[in-house]
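User: C-alpha coordinates for Chitinase-like protein EN03, please.
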Amino acid sequence: MKALIAFVAALALVAANSPTPVGKVVCYYDSRSYVRESQARMLPMDLDPALSFCTHLMYGYAGVHPDTYKMVPLNENLDVDRTHANYRAITNFKGKYPALKPMLSVGGDVDTEDPQKYNLLLESPQARTTFVNSAVLLAEQHGFDGIDLAWQFPKTKPKKIRSTWGSIWHGIKKTFATTPVDDKETEHREGFTALVREMKQALSLKPNMQLSVTILPNVNASIYIDVPAIINHVDFVNLETFDYSTPQRNPKEADYTAPIYTPQNRNELLNSNAAVNYFTQAGAPTYKIIVGIATFGRTWALDSDSEIAGVPPIHANGPGEAGPYTKTEGLLSYPEVCAKLINPNHQKGMRPHLRKVTDPSKRFGTYAFRVPDDNGEGGLWVSYEDPDTAGQKAAFVKSRGLGGISIVDLSMDDFRGLCTSDKYPILRAAKYRL
Ligand SMILES: *[C@@H]1O[C@H](CO)[C@@H](O)[C@H](O)[C@H]1NC(C)=O
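Assistant: Done. Predicted C-alpha coordinates:
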Protein backbone atom coordinates (compact mmCIF):
# COMPACT_ATOMS: atom_id res chain seq x y z
CA MET A 1 0.00 0.00 0.00
CA LYS A 2 2.73 2.38 1.03
CA ALA A 3 4.59 1.55 -2.16
CA LEU A 4 1.48 2.27 -4.18
CA ILE A 5 1.00 5.66 -2.54
CA ALA A 6 4.63 6.50 -3.16
CA PHE A 7 4.24 5.41 -6.76
CA VAL A 8 1.14 7.56 -7.31
CA ALA A 9 2.83 10.49 -5.58
CA ALA A 10 5.85 10.07 -7.84
CA LEU A 11 3.60 10.02 -10.91
CA ALA A 12 1.87 13.20 -9.74
CA LEU A 13 5.27 14.81 -9.26
CA VAL A 14 6.35 13.86 -12.77
CA ALA A 15 3.11 15.27 -14.16
CA ALA A 16 3.48 18.51 -12.18
CA ASN A 17 7.01 18.88 -13.42
CA SER A 18 6.37 18.47 -17.12
CA PRO A 19 3.38 20.35 -18.46
CA THR A 20 5.41 21.93 -21.29
CA PRO A 21 7.17 19.63 -23.71
CA VAL A 22 9.04 22.51 -25.38
CA GLY A 23 11.47 24.64 -23.44
CA LYS A 24 10.76 28.33 -23.14
CA VAL A 25 13.02 30.78 -24.93
CA VAL A 26 12.47 34.12 -23.24
CA CYS A 27 13.94 36.91 -25.35
CA TYR A 28 14.64 40.28 -23.78
CA TYR A 29 14.61 43.39 -25.92
CA ASP A 30 16.33 46.42 -24.41
CA SER A 31 14.67 49.41 -26.04
CA ARG A 32 17.70 51.61 -25.28
CA SER A 33 19.24 49.98 -28.36
CA TYR A 34 16.97 52.19 -30.47
CA VAL A 35 19.22 55.17 -29.83
CA ARG A 36 22.61 53.47 -30.24
CA GLU A 37 24.67 54.46 -33.25
CA SER A 38 25.32 52.94 -36.67
CA GLN A 39 25.67 49.12 -36.59
CA ALA A 40 24.36 48.90 -33.03
CA ARG A 41 21.14 50.79 -33.67
CA MET A 42 18.34 48.30 -33.47
CA LEU A 43 14.85 48.99 -34.74
CA PRO A 44 11.87 46.79 -33.89
CA MET A 45 11.96 45.28 -37.40
CA ASP A 46 15.50 43.99 -36.69
CA LEU A 47 13.89 41.64 -34.15
CA ASP A 48 12.07 39.72 -36.86
CA PRO A 49 14.78 37.09 -37.63
CA ALA A 50 14.90 36.23 -33.89
CA LEU A 51 11.23 35.80 -33.24
CA SER A 52 10.64 32.35 -34.68
CA PHE A 53 13.06 31.13 -31.94
CA CYS A 54 11.45 33.01 -29.04
CA THR A 55 8.42 31.91 -27.02
CA HIS A 56 8.33 35.19 -25.06
CA LEU A 57 9.48 38.69 -25.90
CA MET A 58 10.19 40.93 -22.93
CA TYR A 59 10.02 44.64 -23.60
CA GLY A 60 12.74 46.17 -21.45
CA TYR A 61 11.92 48.28 -19.57
CA ALA A 62 9.07 50.14 -17.98
CA GLY A 63 9.72 52.06 -14.76
CA VAL A 64 8.10 53.21 -11.55
CA HIS A 65 7.08 56.85 -11.18
CA PRO A 66 8.91 58.11 -8.08
CA ASP A 67 5.99 60.21 -6.80
CA THR A 68 2.86 58.32 -7.81
CA TYR A 69 4.26 54.73 -7.82
CA LYS A 70 2.49 54.10 -11.09
CA MET A 71 4.13 51.87 -13.65
CA VAL A 72 5.13 54.17 -16.50
CA PRO A 73 7.01 54.06 -19.81
CA LEU A 74 10.63 55.12 -19.18
CA ASN A 75 10.82 56.85 -22.54
CA GLU A 76 7.38 58.17 -23.49
CA ASN A 77 8.51 59.46 -26.84
CA LEU A 78 10.00 56.16 -27.90
CA ASP A 79 7.65 53.73 -26.16
CA VAL A 80 4.17 55.08 -26.62
CA ASP A 81 4.00 58.31 -28.64
CA ARG A 82 2.46 58.02 -32.04
CA THR A 83 5.66 58.68 -34.00
CA HIS A 84 7.57 55.67 -32.64
CA ALA A 85 5.06 53.67 -30.59
CA ASN A 86 7.56 50.90 -29.86
CA TYR A 87 5.23 49.14 -27.42
CA ARG A 88 2.80 48.64 -30.29
CA ALA A 89 5.51 47.76 -32.78
CA ILE A 90 6.53 44.93 -30.46
CA THR A 91 3.10 43.58 -29.63
CA ASN A 92 2.10 43.75 -33.32
CA PHE A 93 4.57 40.90 -33.95
CA LYS A 94 1.82 38.65 -32.58
CA GLY A 95 0.22 38.99 -36.01
CA LYS A 96 3.14 37.26 -37.70
CA TYR A 97 4.09 35.00 -34.75
CA PRO A 98 0.79 33.99 -33.09
CA ALA A 99 2.50 31.80 -30.45
CA LEU A 100 4.78 34.64 -29.28
CA LYS A 101 3.98 36.19 -25.92
CA PRO A 102 5.14 39.78 -25.64
CA MET A 103 5.39 40.91 -22.02
CA LEU A 104 6.19 44.26 -20.43
CA SER A 105 9.12 44.09 -18.03
CA VAL A 106 9.59 46.65 -15.26
CA GLY A 107 12.87 47.64 -13.61
CA GLY A 108 15.75 45.68 -15.08
CA ASP A 109 18.40 47.95 -13.50
CA VAL A 110 17.51 50.49 -16.18
CA ASP A 111 15.18 52.60 -14.03
CA THR A 112 17.89 54.47 -12.16
CA GLU A 113 16.09 57.63 -11.07
CA ASP A 114 15.46 57.57 -7.33
CA PRO A 115 16.15 53.82 -6.89
CA GLN A 116 14.82 53.78 -3.32
CA LYS A 117 11.29 53.83 -4.76
CA TYR A 118 11.46 50.08 -5.41
CA ASN A 119 11.84 49.48 -1.67
CA LEU A 120 9.31 52.09 -0.62
CA LEU A 121 6.70 50.66 -2.97
CA LEU A 122 6.99 47.25 -1.29
CA GLU A 123 6.46 48.83 2.13
CA SER A 124 3.15 50.46 1.25
CA PRO A 125 -0.05 48.50 0.48
CA GLN A 126 -1.50 51.64 -1.10
CA ALA A 127 1.48 52.16 -3.39
CA ARG A 128 1.30 48.50 -4.41
CA THR A 129 -2.35 48.84 -5.37
CA THR A 130 -1.61 51.92 -7.47
CA PHE A 131 1.30 50.14 -9.12
CA VAL A 132 -0.66 46.97 -9.88
CA ASN A 133 -3.64 48.78 -11.36
CA SER A 134 -1.50 51.05 -13.53
CA ALA A 135 0.66 48.14 -14.68
CA VAL A 136 -2.26 46.01 -15.80
CA LEU A 137 -3.79 48.98 -17.61
CA LEU A 138 -0.51 49.91 -19.35
CA ALA A 139 0.14 46.35 -20.49
CA GLU A 140 -3.44 45.81 -21.64
CA GLN A 141 -3.67 49.12 -23.53
CA HIS A 142 -0.65 48.22 -25.65
CA GLY A 143 -1.48 44.60 -26.31
CA PHE A 144 1.05 42.89 -24.02
CA ASP A 145 0.29 39.36 -22.83
CA GLY A 146 1.73 39.78 -19.39
CA ILE A 147 4.01 41.54 -16.93
CA ASP A 148 7.51 40.70 -15.78
CA LEU A 149 8.75 42.05 -12.46
CA ALA A 150 12.52 42.59 -12.92
CA TRP A 151 12.52 44.07 -9.45
CA GLN A 152 15.40 46.35 -8.45
CA PHE A 153 16.16 44.95 -5.01
CA PRO A 154 19.27 46.13 -3.14
CA LYS A 155 22.39 44.37 -4.46
CA THR A 156 24.74 42.18 -2.47
CA LYS A 157 28.07 43.72 -1.51
CA PRO A 158 30.85 42.74 -3.90
CA LYS A 159 33.19 40.13 -2.45
CA LYS A 160 36.89 39.85 -2.96
CA ILE A 161 37.23 36.70 -5.01
CA ARG A 162 40.53 35.27 -3.90
CA SER A 163 43.97 36.39 -2.92
CA THR A 164 47.19 34.87 -1.66
CA TRP A 165 46.14 36.14 1.74
CA GLY A 166 42.60 34.83 1.27
CA SER A 167 42.28 32.85 4.45
CA ILE A 168 43.92 35.48 6.62
CA TRP A 169 41.70 38.18 5.13
CA HIS A 170 38.69 35.96 5.75
CA GLY A 171 39.66 35.68 9.39
CA ILE A 172 40.04 39.42 9.80
CA LYS A 173 36.77 40.15 8.07
CA LYS A 174 34.87 37.85 10.38
CA THR A 175 35.93 39.87 13.40
CA PHE A 176 34.10 42.94 12.07
CA ALA A 177 30.33 42.95 12.25
CA THR A 178 29.15 43.17 8.63
CA THR A 179 26.60 45.91 8.09
CA PRO A 180 23.55 44.67 6.21
CA VAL A 181 22.84 46.18 2.79
CA ASP A 182 19.17 46.51 3.68
CA ASP A 183 17.94 46.90 7.24
CA LYS A 184 14.35 46.13 6.23
CA GLU A 185 15.02 42.82 4.50
CA THR A 186 12.07 41.01 6.03
CA GLU A 187 9.65 43.81 5.26
CA HIS A 188 10.79 43.90 1.63
CA ARG A 189 10.57 40.15 1.28
CA GLU A 190 7.02 40.14 2.60
CA GLY A 191 6.10 43.19 0.53
CA PHE A 192 7.31 41.48 -2.64
CA THR A 193 5.30 38.36 -1.84
CA ALA A 194 2.23 40.57 -1.43
CA LEU A 195 3.01 42.40 -4.68
CA VAL A 196 3.25 39.16 -6.63
CA ARG A 197 0.01 37.88 -5.12
CA GLU A 198 -1.83 41.13 -5.83
CA MET A 199 -0.47 41.36 -9.36
CA LYS A 200 -1.54 37.78 -10.06
CA GLN A 201 -5.00 38.52 -8.72
CA ALA A 202 -5.39 41.54 -11.02
CA LEU A 203 -3.99 39.74 -14.06
CA SER A 204 -6.19 36.70 -13.56
CA LEU A 205 -9.24 38.87 -14.25
CA LYS A 206 -7.90 39.38 -17.80
CA PRO A 207 -7.73 36.70 -20.46
CA ASN A 208 -4.31 35.11 -21.07
CA MET A 209 -2.13 37.46 -19.06
CA GLN A 210 1.05 35.88 -17.70
CA LEU A 211 3.17 36.94 -14.74
CA SER A 212 6.89 36.33 -14.34
CA VAL A 213 9.64 37.45 -12.01
CA THR A 214 13.20 38.22 -13.10
CA ILE A 215 15.93 37.95 -10.49
CA LEU A 216 18.47 40.57 -11.52
CA PRO A 217 22.22 39.95 -11.15
CA ASN A 218 23.59 40.23 -7.61
CA VAL A 219 20.19 40.20 -5.97
CA ASN A 220 20.26 37.64 -3.18
CA ALA A 221 17.13 35.56 -3.80
CA SER A 222 17.46 33.77 -0.49
CA ILE A 223 16.84 37.13 1.19
CA TYR A 224 14.08 38.57 -0.97
CA ILE A 225 12.26 35.69 -2.64
CA ASP A 226 9.94 33.56 -0.54
CA VAL A 227 9.74 30.77 -3.10
CA PRO A 228 6.90 28.69 -1.59
CA ALA A 229 4.79 31.83 -1.18
CA ILE A 230 5.17 33.19 -4.71
CA ILE A 231 5.81 30.23 -6.97
CA ASN A 232 2.17 29.28 -7.51
CA HIS A 233 1.37 32.83 -8.60
CA VAL A 234 3.97 33.11 -11.37
CA ASP A 235 4.27 31.39 -14.73
CA PHE A 236 8.04 31.35 -14.52
CA VAL A 237 11.07 32.85 -12.79
CA ASN A 238 13.99 34.04 -14.86
CA LEU A 239 17.34 33.81 -13.07
CA GLU A 240 19.87 36.27 -14.47
CA THR A 241 22.86 34.19 -13.48
CA PHE A 242 25.56 36.46 -14.84
CA ASP A 243 27.52 39.58 -13.79
CA TYR A 244 28.74 37.71 -10.70
CA SER A 245 31.87 39.77 -11.14
CA THR A 246 31.90 43.07 -13.01
CA PRO A 247 34.53 45.79 -13.48
CA GLN A 248 32.30 48.16 -11.50
CA ARG A 249 31.93 45.80 -8.54
CA ASN A 250 35.41 44.24 -8.68
CA PRO A 251 37.64 46.80 -10.43
CA LYS A 252 40.92 45.25 -9.24
CA GLU A 253 40.18 41.63 -10.03
CA ALA A 254 38.85 40.21 -13.29
CA ASP A 255 37.09 36.85 -13.22
CA TYR A 256 34.57 34.64 -14.98
CA THR A 257 31.32 36.59 -14.96
CA ALA A 258 28.86 33.76 -15.54
CA PRO A 259 30.12 30.28 -14.60
CA ILE A 260 27.66 27.37 -14.63
CA TYR A 261 29.48 25.69 -11.73
CA THR A 262 31.90 26.93 -9.05
CA PRO A 263 35.46 27.44 -10.30
CA GLN A 264 38.15 26.42 -7.81
CA ASN A 265 38.54 28.66 -4.73
CA ARG A 266 35.51 30.79 -5.46
CA ASN A 267 32.34 31.52 -3.53
CA GLU A 268 30.12 28.49 -4.06
CA LEU A 269 26.94 30.54 -4.34
CA LEU A 270 27.97 32.61 -7.36
CA ASN A 271 27.03 30.46 -10.36
CA SER A 272 23.98 29.23 -12.31
CA ASN A 273 23.85 25.85 -10.64
CA ALA A 274 23.72 27.35 -7.13
CA ALA A 275 21.04 29.85 -8.17
CA VAL A 276 18.91 27.04 -9.58
CA ASN A 277 19.46 24.93 -6.45
CA TYR A 278 18.10 27.65 -4.19
CA PHE A 279 14.80 27.56 -6.10
CA THR A 280 14.48 23.80 -6.44
CA GLN A 281 15.41 23.19 -2.81
CA ALA A 282 12.77 25.73 -1.78
CA GLY A 283 10.18 23.70 -3.69
CA ALA A 284 9.92 25.44 -7.07
CA PRO A 285 8.88 23.03 -9.82
CA THR A 286 11.78 22.78 -12.24
CA TYR A 287 9.63 23.69 -15.26
CA LYS A 288 9.13 27.21 -13.86
CA ILE A 289 12.87 27.97 -13.71
CA ILE A 290 14.46 29.83 -16.61
CA VAL A 291 18.22 30.43 -16.78
CA GLY A 292 19.46 33.70 -18.29
CA ILE A 293 22.23 33.88 -20.89
CA ALA A 294 23.98 37.22 -21.38
CA THR A 295 24.86 38.35 -24.89
CA PHE A 296 27.54 40.74 -23.70
CA GLY A 297 30.99 40.55 -22.19
CA ARG A 298 32.47 42.37 -19.22
CA THR A 299 35.91 43.84 -19.71
CA TRP A 300 38.77 44.92 -17.48
CA ALA A 301 41.95 46.79 -18.29
CA LEU A 302 45.13 44.81 -17.59
CA ASP A 303 48.27 46.65 -16.56
CA SER A 304 51.92 45.73 -16.04
CA ASP A 305 51.04 44.14 -12.66
CA SER A 306 48.67 41.64 -14.32
CA GLU A 307 49.90 38.06 -14.72
CA ILE A 308 50.72 37.51 -18.38
CA ALA A 309 49.19 34.02 -18.48
CA GLY A 310 45.76 35.66 -18.31
CA VAL A 311 44.26 33.01 -16.04
CA PRO A 312 41.43 34.31 -13.80
CA PRO A 313 41.11 35.65 -11.21
CA ILE A 314 43.63 38.13 -12.53
CA HIS A 315 44.80 41.51 -11.28
CA ALA A 316 43.07 44.29 -13.25
CA ASN A 317 42.94 48.03 -13.31
CA GLY A 318 39.29 48.98 -13.62
CA PRO A 319 36.93 48.71 -16.57
CA GLY A 320 38.21 48.21 -20.09
CA GLU A 321 37.63 50.99 -22.58
CA ALA A 322 34.18 51.47 -24.09
CA GLY A 323 33.22 49.61 -27.25
CA PRO A 324 32.68 51.49 -30.54
CA TYR A 325 28.91 50.99 -30.51
CA THR A 326 27.74 50.30 -26.99
CA LYS A 327 30.00 53.14 -25.75
CA THR A 328 30.00 51.93 -22.15
CA GLU A 329 33.17 51.33 -20.12
CA GLY A 330 33.68 47.70 -19.14
CA LEU A 331 31.04 46.39 -21.57
CA LEU A 332 31.21 44.87 -25.06
CA SER A 333 28.34 43.39 -27.04
CA TYR A 334 28.99 39.97 -28.59
CA PRO A 335 29.71 41.41 -32.08
CA GLU A 336 32.11 43.91 -30.47
CA VAL A 337 34.00 41.07 -28.77
CA CYS A 338 34.00 39.02 -31.92
CA ALA A 339 35.51 41.90 -33.92
CA LYS A 340 38.38 42.07 -31.41
CA LEU A 341 39.23 38.41 -31.89
CA ILE A 342 40.50 39.14 -35.39
CA ASN A 343 42.72 41.89 -36.71
CA PRO A 344 42.41 41.60 -40.46
CA ASN A 345 45.82 41.62 -42.17
CA HIS A 346 47.42 42.78 -38.89
CA GLN A 347 46.55 46.33 -39.77
CA LYS A 348 49.06 48.86 -38.57
CA GLY A 349 47.91 51.17 -35.81
CA MET A 350 45.37 48.63 -34.57
CA ARG A 351 45.87 46.81 -31.32
CA PRO A 352 46.73 43.11 -31.64
CA HIS A 353 43.73 40.83 -31.50
CA LEU A 354 42.56 39.18 -28.30
CA ARG A 355 43.59 35.61 -27.61
CA LYS A 356 40.57 33.44 -26.90
CA VAL A 357 40.78 30.82 -24.16
CA THR A 358 38.05 28.22 -24.17
CA ASP A 359 37.11 26.01 -21.27
CA PRO A 360 37.35 22.31 -22.12
CA SER A 361 35.43 21.42 -18.94
CA LYS A 362 32.44 23.43 -20.27
CA ARG A 363 31.71 24.62 -16.74
CA PHE A 364 33.07 28.14 -16.36
CA GLY A 365 32.91 29.99 -19.68
CA THR A 366 35.21 31.60 -22.21
CA TYR A 367 37.57 34.52 -21.82
CA ALA A 368 39.89 36.42 -24.13
CA PHE A 369 42.71 38.79 -23.42
CA ARG A 370 45.77 40.66 -24.59
CA VAL A 371 48.63 41.70 -22.34
CA PRO A 372 49.61 45.37 -22.24
CA ASP A 373 52.26 46.72 -24.62
CA ASP A 374 55.74 47.86 -23.49
CA ASN A 375 54.28 51.13 -22.21
CA GLY A 376 51.85 49.18 -20.03
CA GLU A 377 48.91 50.14 -22.24
CA GLY A 378 46.23 48.39 -24.25
CA GLY A 379 45.86 45.37 -21.95
CA LEU A 380 42.35 43.94 -21.91
CA TRP A 381 40.60 40.97 -20.32
CA VAL A 382 37.05 39.98 -21.24
CA SER A 383 34.72 37.28 -19.95
CA TYR A 384 31.92 36.64 -22.40
CA GLU A 385 29.37 34.24 -23.76
CA ASP A 386 29.70 32.89 -27.30
CA PRO A 387 27.53 30.42 -29.25
CA ASP A 388 29.46 27.46 -27.76
CA THR A 389 29.08 28.51 -24.13
CA ALA A 390 25.45 29.56 -24.71
CA GLY A 391 24.84 26.05 -26.05
CA GLN A 392 26.50 24.60 -22.94
CA LYS A 393 24.14 26.62 -20.74
CA ALA A 394 21.15 25.37 -22.69
CA ALA A 395 22.45 21.80 -22.30
CA PHE A 396 22.73 22.39 -18.54
CA VAL A 397 19.13 23.63 -18.48
CA LYS A 398 18.00 20.57 -20.38
CA SER A 399 19.92 18.13 -18.19
CA ARG A 400 18.36 19.65 -15.06
CA GLY A 401 14.88 19.47 -16.60
CA LEU A 402 14.36 23.22 -16.24
CA GLY A 403 11.77 25.37 -18.01
CA GLY A 404 14.07 27.01 -20.52
CA ILE A 405 16.50 29.79 -21.21
CA SER A 406 16.39 33.54 -21.57
CA ILE A 407 18.54 35.71 -23.80
CA VAL A 408 19.57 39.02 -22.22
CA ASP A 409 19.31 40.73 -24.54
CA LEU A 410 18.66 40.48 -28.28
CA SER A 411 20.22 43.87 -29.04
CA MET A 412 23.68 42.69 -27.93
CA ASP A 413 23.55 39.41 -29.80
CA ASP A 414 24.94 39.69 -33.32
CA PHE A 415 21.61 40.71 -34.80
CA ARG A 416 23.17 41.82 -38.08
CA GLY A 417 25.25 38.70 -38.58
CA LEU A 418 28.60 40.55 -38.60
CA CYS A 419 30.70 37.79 -36.96
CA THR A 420 29.63 34.99 -39.24
CA SER A 421 26.76 35.32 -41.65
CA ASP A 422 24.27 34.04 -39.06
CA LYS A 423 22.02 36.55 -37.41
CA TYR A 424 21.48 36.03 -33.66
CA PRO A 425 24.14 33.31 -33.27
CA ILE A 426 23.88 33.16 -29.45
CA LEU A 427 20.11 32.82 -29.48
CA ARG A 428 20.28 30.16 -32.21
CA ALA A 429 23.00 28.11 -30.54
CA ALA A 430 21.14 28.10 -27.22
CA LYS A 431 17.82 27.22 -28.82
CA TYR A 432 19.31 24.27 -30.72
CA ARG A 433 20.73 22.71 -27.56
CA LEU A 434 17.53 23.09 -25.55
C1 LIG B 1 22.49 35.50 0.60
O1 LIG B 1 21.87 35.53 1.85
C2 LIG B 1 22.08 34.37 2.64
C3 LIG B 1 21.19 34.47 3.84
O2 LIG B 1 21.37 35.70 4.50
C4 LIG B 1 23.56 34.25 2.97
O3 LIG B 1 23.80 33.09 3.72
C5 LIG B 1 24.33 34.18 1.66
O4 LIG B 1 25.72 34.18 1.92
C6 LIG B 1 23.99 35.35 0.78
N1 LIG B 1 24.59 35.13 -0.54
C7 LIG B 1 25.47 35.97 -1.09
C8 LIG B 1 25.97 35.59 -2.42
O5 LIG B 1 25.81 37.02 -0.57
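User: Anything notable?

Assistant: The first helix runs from residue 2 to 17.
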